[in-house]
Automatic annotation (TrEMBL):
It comes from the Bacteria. GO terms for molecular function: phosphoric diester hydrolase activity. The lineage of its organism: Bacteria, Bacillati, Bacillota, Bacilli, Lactobacillales. This is GP-PDE domain-containing protein. Residues 1-20 are annotated as: Disordered. PROSITE patterns: GP_PDE (PS51704). Pfam families: GBS_Bsp-like, GDPD. GO terms for biological process: lipid metabolic process. Residues 381-611 form the GP-PDE domain. The chain crosses the membrane at residues 27-50. Keywords: Membrane, Transmembrane, Transmembrane helix.
Length: 611
């Protein structure tokens, strides 16, 4: 029993010792944890003390937050200078992308660590035209000025522009606007912030960057109305900023001397158009070139070649208005100039169209082609030198033919005794040569012995130049000058063989389609027309009447009238009637003082003594 009591006593003592030991361990564990917490707290405070700059606003010399570390900041921990991505390529320095401690939760009674500056970069209206920079530097003290050096990577720092920051106290921020127009460069831009303190020290750090896209355009030519002398240039723009100006240069001459610049009008978003009318180019036919040049509101430019198109619009030189009508001052036909009488003639500069309405642009104004009969003349009035240029050389002489600059040259032909065609106005050689007698009584050999001894400046020409020309001499000169020969057939009642010889001679010189045969004898014209149906014949007369018009129109195509001008000076109606029947109208004997009046009659040719 005693042994059992002893064993129980030992167990109790052992348990007491264990309990006492546990109590001792617990007692030592709590002080250790307490000490450890204190040590860690001191370490954290030391880290804050070493790495963070506390705002001591009560100290006048306090500089506040430093954006770039000084050499003494050996223990400072700095985040890597990566940029925080915003939108559409805008980035700001990630160290300053947002504040550490929001100012609205701070207790002003407590000295918090200095609030880190933060930057903002905004693409205004998302147009890549103006970028707003904002730097909250409320924790940086004694700032004298803030600048934002900015440059495009394409041109590098040489393109650098310094933008001055403007302080806004309501937001405690420095702001500035970057204008891309100052750089006019596409690609990435780099921005820095330069802070100058009142004591002259500076801090320079990266602010951020952004990307400006290069605009582009496409242009095409719409030929829908090319048959009206008009075309459109359509331009499509691919640009983020708005378009400031879109110009379309158009030209038709290789040296661009007639270049005209049109400003495009907006049709819809990114779609513009220019309308070109060849009236702007004085109705020039030919190949037209067009480019397109765009300037965006941020100063960036884009251009493209729109291509080429060709205008070939046939137009008359003159028109005859067959009934009374109105001449207008403007193309819209809203301003009347004056009334035009029936059978009036107008010179045409070009034909224009208002939608489908055809309008003649004349030298004096605009005439509508609607509801009016108009006769178009494809050739201008043409002048014929009477007996050559007899103001500088004797009439019907080789020098007078050679020195004429007129479109046509008129001469007179007779048959010699041996049936050769020679040039002379009179039927005798008496007036113009050193001989006498009828041409029909002299042989060609006899005529060749004679010399012209009358007329203008005869002393300036050699004896060989003043021979009486043959028709062959005349046609040879006409061919070399490419002038139109007007051959007056003087003789009457010729034999068929004589008509044949004249026709064969004209044909042998290749002038059956260009020569004009004129005569006061209608039967001469009938006979020549039989032999040369493609040769024009004109009836010479002192007056014009309806019977003559009907008679000549019976000769078929390529016939005409050659009338002394006085008889038709006031008869535009007869001239119009003759032309309406397909007849050419030529006037002769017209003095220079009457040229303009005769031209206004709408005649085809005018034979004059003034080359």
């Amino acid at each position: 029993m005693e042994e059992k009591k002893k064993l129980k006593g030992k167990k109790k003592n052992t348990e007491k010792k264990k309990t006492s030991s546990k109590r001792k361990k617990k007692f030592f564990r709590f002080p250790t944890l307490f000490i450890l917490v204190i040590v860690i707290g001191i370490g954290i405070l030391a880290w804050f003390y070493l790495t963070l700059d506390y705002q001591d606003n009560s100290n006048p010399s306090y500089d506040g937050y430093r954006l770039s570390p000084s050499n003494s900041d050996v223990f400072a921990i700095h985040l890597p200078k990566e940029e925080a991505l915003l939108t559409e390529g805008e980035r700001v320095n990630s160290e300053f992308s947002e504040p550490i401690i929001q100012p609205w939760v701070q207790d002003k009674a407590v000295n918090y660590p200095a609030q880190r500056p933060f930057f903002r970069l905004l693409n205004m209206d998302n147009k890549q035209t103006v970028y707003k920079l904002s730097a909250n530097l409320s924790s940086v003290k004694h700032i004298a000025k803030v600048e934002f050096p900015t440059f495009g990577e394409q041109d590098g720092p040489s393109d650098s522009q310094i933008y001055q920051g403007v302080y806004h106290p309501e937001t405690n921020s420095w702001e500035s606007d970057i204008l891309i127009k100052k750089h006019q460069e596409a690609g990435r831009y780099q921005i820095k912030i330069l802070i100058t303190k009142e004591n002259g020290t500076t801090e320079l750090v990266d602010f951020g960057s952004f990307v400006v896209n290069q605009p582009s355009i496409e242009a095409t030519i719409d030929n829908t109305d090319i048959g009206k002398g008009q075309f459109d240039v359509t331009i499509k723009t691919n640009t983020i900023p708005d378009v400031e100006k879109l110009i379309v240069p158009v030209w038709s001459k290789e040296d661009k001397s007639d270049e005209k610049k049109y400003e495009a009008t907006k049709q819809s978003d990114h779609l513009y158009k220019v309308h070109v009318d060849y009236e702007d180019f004085d109705f020039t036919n030919g190949v037209y070139h067009a480019n397109a040049e765009m300037i965006a509101k941020n100063g960036l430019k884009a251009g493209t070649d729109a291509g080429t198109t060709e205008i070939q619009l046939r137009r008359p030189v003159r028109i005859r208005i067959m009934q009374e009508t109105t001449l207008f001052q403007n193309r819209t036909l809203s301003k009347s100039a004056r009334q035009l009488a029936a059978n009036s003639v107008a010179y045409v500069k070009g034909i224009v169209f208002n939608s489908e309405k055809k309008i003649y642009r004349t030298t004096e104004g605009y005439i509508s082609a609607e509801n009016i009969e108009i006769s178009e003349m494809m050739d201008d009035i043409r002048y014929v030198a009477h007996r050559g240029n007899h103001k500088v050389a004797p009439e019907n002489s080789i020098p007078s033919f050679q020195q004429s600059n007129s479109w046509g040259i008129e001469t007179d032909v007779w048959l010699t005794k041996d049936k050769q065609w020679v040039i002379m106005h009179d039927k005798t050689v008496d007036r113009m040569t050193n001989g006498k007698g009828k041409i029909s009584d002299l042989t060609l050999a006899q005529i060749r012995e004679l010399r012209i001894d009358q007329g203008s400046n005869k002393e300036n020409y050699s004896s060989d130049q003043l021979v009486i020309p043959t028709l062959e001499d005349f046609l040879t000169i006409m061919n070399s000058k490419q002038s139109i020969p007007f051959i007056e057939l003087k003789a009457k009642k010729l034999a068929p063989s004589e008509y044949d010889s004249l026709a064969n001679l004209i044909s042998s010189y290749g002038m059956a389609n260009t020569a004009v045969i004129i005569s006061f004898d209608y039967s001469n014209l009938v006979e020549m027309k039989k032999r040369l149906p493609d040769t024009q014949v004109q009836f010479l007369a002192n007056t014009l009447d309806d019977v003559m018009i009907d008679q000549m129109s019976n000769l078929g195509g390529n016939a005409g009238l050659d009338i002394r001008y006085e008889s038709v000076a006031n008869r535009a109606d007869l001239i119009a009637k003759a032309q309406s029947k397909g007849l050419t109208v030529n006037l002769w004997g017209v003095p220079q003082s009457e040229f303009k009046k005769m031209e206004s009659l709408g005649i085809n040719n005018l034979t004059t003594d003034y080359d």
